[in-house]
Each structure stands twice: as C-alpha cells, then as structure tokens.
Amino acid sequence: MHPISTLRQLSNIISDAVDDIERTYGASGKALPSIDQPFNQNDSAEALLKDAVISSATKNIMAAAAQLSATVCDPRRGAVNMSKSFLLSSCLRVASELDVVELLREAGPKGANAADIAAVCKVDAGIMARILRLLATHHVFQEVAPGVFANNRLSSVLDKGKSTSALRSNPADRLTGSSGVAAMAEHSADLGAKSAAYLLEAMTTTPGEDSKLAFNIAFDTTEPLYMWMQEPQNRLPADRFSVAMTGAEPAENILQGFDWSKLPSGGRVVDVGGGIGHVSLMIAKRYPHLRAVNQDLGQAIEISKAHWKETFPEHLEKGLAEFQVHDFFAPQPVKDAAVFLLRGILHNWPDAQAVVILRSLRSAALPSTRLVIGERILPLASRVGSKTDNIPGASRPTAKAPLLPNWGPATADSYLYDLSMQTLLGGVERTLDGFQEVLAEAGWLLVEVHHSQVGLPMSQLVAAPI
Ligand SMILES: C[S@@+](CC[C@H](N)C(=O)[O-])C[C@H]1O[C@@H](n2cnc3c(N)ncnc32)[C@H](O)[C@@H]1O
C-alpha cells in the first residue's frame, strides 16, 4: 500500500478514537483529565478512562500516533534518539529521589524556579533545569516560564504523598505508604537501568560457570537479585521493591475471573512468594471466610506481618492469617491448600526453575487444589493464531491493519517487563504457549484464562493437577 494512504488510515484511526472519547465524556458531563493538571485518582473523570470504549480508543491512539511518528520521522534521528533514551530514565530517578515532585506540589500551579529547587536539593542549578527541561519535553512536568517548572499529570503520579519536610526528616521511610509508582520508577531507573546496560555482555558470554546475568555484572555480585536484597546493606532497595510491588502492579483484578466465593470456609489460600501480602489481604478482605497463608523469604515476611497488622488486624486476631518463611524451591509445607496463588513469581525465573517451583506445588496439591497464576501474558506480535487459543478465556483481539497486531507501544510495558526480568533475574514474560509448556511439564493442566476487564496488564491463569 502506498505510504500516503497508510498515513491517512492512521490519522483516521486517531480521529475516530478522539470522536469516541469526546462522545463518551460529553454524554457523562465530565471533562477528560487535562495533561496540565496533577493526577487525581479520586476524580470520577479518571474512572471513566476504564470504560471499554475509552480504553479501546486510547489503545488505538497510542498505537497509531507512535506508528505515524515512526513513519514520518528521520530514521537516523529516530534511531540515535532511541539509543539515548536511557537518559529519560536517569532524569526521572533524579526527580523522584530528590523529591522534586513534592517540592513542586508545595509550590502550586505557578511552579518553582529550577535554581530554588536545586538549592533545596543541594545540587547544581543548571543541571537541575536541564534535567527538568528534558522531562518536560517528554510531557513529564511543564516549563511554565523560562526555568520555572510545575507538576503536570505525568509528573504528579510520582508524588509520594508526604510533605517535603517529612520526606527529609525520615529518608528511610520516604516511600512507605506511597502509591508504589515512585518506588517502581526508582527501582527501574536504578537497579533496572544499571543492569540493562550490560545486556549485550551478559548474553554474549559463553554459557557455563562464568556466565552471569546483566544484574550480576552491573553490581559485581554472584548473588541472585532476591538474595542480594536480603543482605543488610541492601535494605533500602529491598524495601523500595516491596513498595513498588503494591502500586505499580495494581492487584484488584485478582478478584475477578477465578471464583473465590466458591472455596470452602477456612479454605487455605497460600500466597507463594506473596511479598508484602497485599494480594492475599485483598482476597481475604473480600472473602473473609478464607484463611490466608503468606509465604516469602524472611525480610518480606517481616514486612508482610506489619502490613497485615496495620491494615487487617481483625483477620489476624481470628487466627485466619498465617506467615511462613518459605523458600519456594523447597518442598511445599502446606498440603491441604484450596488455592496456591503465584502472582508475579513465574516471570522472575527461566523455564527450568519455574518448573521446579510448580512441581513443588504439584507434589503438595490435593485433586481439588487449584493453582491461580497472576502474570502478564505476552501478546504475540503476529496475526497468526496459536495452539492455546482454544483454552476458555484465552483469545484476545488483535488490532486491525495497518496497526501492529499487538497495538505496538500501547502494550510496550509487557515487552519492557520481559527484558527487565531477563536482565535482573534471567526471567521471562511468557506467551500463553510458554505458560502451557511449563505447567504441563510440572503436572498442571491449564484450564482457564481470565484477561483483565479493567485494562490492567496482568491476566489470571487457572490450572488443575493432572
Ligand atoms: C515480583 S515479587 C511478587 C510479590 C507478590 N506476589 C506480588 O504480586 O506483589 C516476587 C516475590 O518473590 C519472592 N521470592 C524470591 N525468591 C524467593 C524464594 N526462593 N522463595 C520464596 N519467595 C521468594 C520475593 O521476595 C518477592 O516478594
């Protein structure tokens, strides 16, 4: 097809999607949240973004706009700019770790001069202005007057919700109780970015005793990431990671799909590698007839106990919440589970280790035990169907040409996670075929799949013992 006609098709996709958004917001009497205003998750206009028509329009706009831009840009500049995009990540880390977002929240809509921000942060004023300008150029912050910056929609999601004096007086707790977005951004821009810089070196070393993951090269350690985070000197990145898991990976769709209400009273839901325990807590709050068993490594279990005590003490007092330090590569101690829950676990491990984790659960399972997995299911980037499309709930729509079948950058987070898992842990985000293979090898039959109905990236996979 002639490129001009493709260009027009892409522009029409955007135009139709904008019509859909305007119509839906118009009918609701609400206004689409502005990019110039801070994000407010309690605003009812925000909830409307999850509407099916709007979600679909949003995906189309993101995919078509990126494709249009890639089509018309100078490819030499496009490639070189992409090679420098790590600087966006570094600048975001500076803004988040120096609490610039909170300083700007306190400054209000008129914003603050980069020199004043730099003085509070005790850093160079000129570099601060250049960092904020690069981010503002990518729609994170706005430059409201020369050298004067204010928060906007994208910068404000990094707000940790505390005053700058509270953040400065207690730096060890600066992320505690925050939404998790800043924690995930700092984790990714620190451990993630430094590790990813060694992706090539890690993948081109000869496999064998000396082969290392990118993380191990970057941090000059032989410890796997989770063991490294157990060391006392790495307490801050470990705590930051626990907070990151709560907000950046919203868990509410764990309550959809699998029917938790049908589990028997007192049935044990074992949250294997449950981290802070927020997922089992969400399930137990909605279905208080269930008993939650939180399993993780020592440090995470400490945090999990504290989190439960603060947010759902009633369940603890009734003896319906248990905490176990358990290595999921060891034999599973719970032999009467109603459900083994594995959320965000399998993607941390290559197939061979994923199979070990799954086999240990399989050995402890009763015929009635179900395995509920919460993970991203990587969409294929091709239009040809796969052998797993026949599993109930599995198939997903593909975007119409000329868009890429997976909506391109609109689903980029799954592919970014995939390679983050590779660089940090040797892990992988799996396609549905990939899940079916590791499950079958460990003695589990994939019986149903539930994709998120509210636009969240994680899907649910339910398996039964073979
Ligand atoms: C990506 S987090 C997921 C946490 C939680 N399931 C969630 O969805 O938020 C992975 C978890 O696996 C835990 N983990 C890593 N290695 C482990 C092991 N060998 N045994 C038990 N837990 C482990 C980590 O401590 C971390 O809490």
UniProtKB/TrEMBL annotation:
O-methyltransferase C-terminal domain segment(s): 251-383
PROSITE patterns in the cross-refs: SAM_OMT_II
InterPro entries hit by this protein: COMT-like (IPR016461), COMT_C (IPR001077), COMT_dimerisation (IPR012967), SAM-dependent_MTases_sf (IPR029063), WH-like_DNA-bd_sf (IPR036388), WH_DNA-bd_sf (IPR036390)
GO molecular function: O-methyltransferase activity; protein dimerization activity
Top-rank taxon: Eukaryota
Source organism (scientific name): Mycena venus
Pfam families in UniProt: Dimerisation, Methyltransf_2
Gene Ontology terms describing biological process: methylation
Keywords, comma-separated and alphabetical: Methyltransferase, S-adenosyl-L-methionine, Transferase
Name of the featured protein: S-adenosyl-L-methionine-dependent methyltransferase
Residue span, O-methyltransferase dimerisation domain: 82-158
